[in-house]
Write a structure and sequence with these properties.
- The chain is of the alpha+beta class.
- The protein is built from four helices and six strands, in the order E-E-H-E-E-H-H-E-E-H.
- A four-stranded antiparallel beta sheet has the order 4-3-5-6.
- Strand 5 and strand 6 form a beta hairpin.
- It is globular.
- The two termini are about 15 Å apart.
- The relative contact order is 0.21.
- The mean pLDDT is about 80.
Length: about 120
């Protein structure tokens, strides 16, 4: 799965802004996005979690005082998930959390998501 974009509504200006996936990550517009790879329509179970706000990773690296491959941090701050096997329910859910703590949930059947990916 890939985070393709995010619409953010500013209640002060009453304007909506659209950011493409990488652009949203680069501009720190997406604090977190979560993936449930076998969503059952009842309970969101986090299978993969991403935190694109990269400045937070610098603080965590210092706190851990360890050495980790940069690819690990890059992946956790990215907009594309790891590959995964289709689950029993054959659908995925993506939850995006914005700066105000608002959650947006998008649910796609795997066949539907596959077709959208083939069109791009």
């Amino acid at each position: 799965m890939e985070l393709l974009g995010l619409d953010v509504f500013d209640p002060v200006t009453m304007q909506a802004s659209h950011y493409k996936g990488e652009e949203a990550a680069e501009q720190d517009k997406v604090p977190a996005w979560l993936l449930d790879t076998d969503y059952n329509n009842l309970c969101f179970h986090v299978s993969q979690a991403f935190f694109p706000r990269t400045a937070a990773w610098d603080s965590l690296k210092r706190a851990l005082r360890g050495s980790y491959e940069d690819s690990v941090w890059d992946h956790l701050a990215g907009t594309a998930s790891e590959w995964f096997e289709a689950g029993e329910h054959k659908q995925v859910a993506v939850k995006v959390i914005d700066d105000r703590g608002n959650e947006l949930l998008v649910v796609k059947g795997l066949a539907e998501a596959e077709m959208e990916g083939a069109r791009k």
